[in-house]
Specification:
single chain; alpha/beta; 8-stranded mixed β-sheet; 6-stranded mixed β-sheet; 11 helices; binds flavin-adenine dinucleotide
Length: 380
Amino acid sequence: MAKPLNIAIIGAGMGGLATAAALRRVGIAVTVYEQAQQFTRLGAGIQVGCNAMKVLRKLGLEERMRGQSFYPRSWNNRDWRTGDIKFDMIFGESAEAKFGAPYLLAHRGDLHEALASAVPDECVRLSHKLTGLDETADGVRLTFANGATAVADAVVAADGVHSVVRDMLFGTSPVNFTGRIAYRTTYPASLLNGERIDDCTKWWGEDRHIVIYYVKPDRSEVYLVTSQPEPGFTVESWSATGDVSELRKAFDGFHPQVRHVLEACPSVHKWALVDRDPLPRWSDGNITLLGDACHPMTPYMAQGAAMAIEDAAVLSRCLKGVDRDGVAEAFRRFEATRKPRTSRVQASSRTNTWLKNPTDPDWVYGYDAWTAPLAEPALA
Ligand SMILES: Cc1cc2nc3c(=O)[nH]c(=O)nc-3n(C[C@H](O)[C@H](O)[C@H](O)COP(=O)(O)OP(=O)(O)OC[C@H]3O[C@@H](n4cnc5c(N)ncnc54)[C@H](O)[C@@H]3O)c2cc1C
């Protein structure tokens, strides 16, 4: 019997952990290398679309995610000032029946912990910042900032929007700063002083918006995320905090419900919003990119992590039963299968019109990464 593949995954974010769990399902040995010293629970929410939930179900995480997340009746879209409804995208049971999985609103830390729970601790190496990659006759040789080295049959780089592997392989241009920023935070709903807010609403303003939703099943925690112009701000880091009074000022004329949520908000993170045009290539030999490393997008469809999670499922199907000599072709099949969809989501996200008016969402939420047809491999 052929030796099982041994794959190094760079980055233990959403994409890296989902990939580790999905590859283990098909008998592939994985080691995940993460630069951080530990996993930290940072204040943000994340919408987990039905398409992502179909992947998480097969990774054995559905029950856990349902138990920890909020199950909204809809994603409502309202006018910033009048509160008039522009389009109410109904989720809940009817959408679950139609798309084959629930739409959940989670704490980002809960989703990350769920994915981490699907990967044994001994497969994850923290404090391993990748600094070099070399394809040799024995496999791909990896070097790390801490002096460690490793050899793997292949490498999946899920190292995020500023991927060093992407730069090593393709020397790509810098990321596109959109000139816009997001404030975001989660906080205890008790700070709302008993005032009930909508399940999940995007409040559409003229040049800015704010999305507010619960992230716990008992409505005990609230999340808000904004988008507004601030050209020149380029920090993307969880250590960058924002000024809550600036945030309140920026949404001054908004509907009373928005102002109430901002009044109660104790602190915020501030984040530059970036994206990138689709890349010409994702893989080179036995090294491929995955997730934000190859298709970063603005967060306006709430699909960035969902795309990385879908990638994981499709990659596992492409690699199933493949030996080391077949990996490069499997990676090109992965790219050919995924790129049309991720490019479409990147382009659609950039327009920031998703669900603003009546929208047919079937192509996004109806997708099933476990059964979508696999494409012919892209040319080498
Ligand atoms: C404001 C905002 C809101 C969002 N909301 C949603 C949402 O509601 N739903 C949704 O689906 N998506 C959302 N997203 C997008 C989502 O956060 C990303 O698409 C997703 O995190 C990408 O996952 P990833 O694994 O590719 O990258 P990341 O999660 O960024 O993980 C990359 C990992 O690689 C590690 N790393 C980097 N370089 C190295 C190195 N050299 N060596 C070792 N490790 C390394 C990093 O430390 C990190 O852990 C949002 C994004 C933003 C900015």
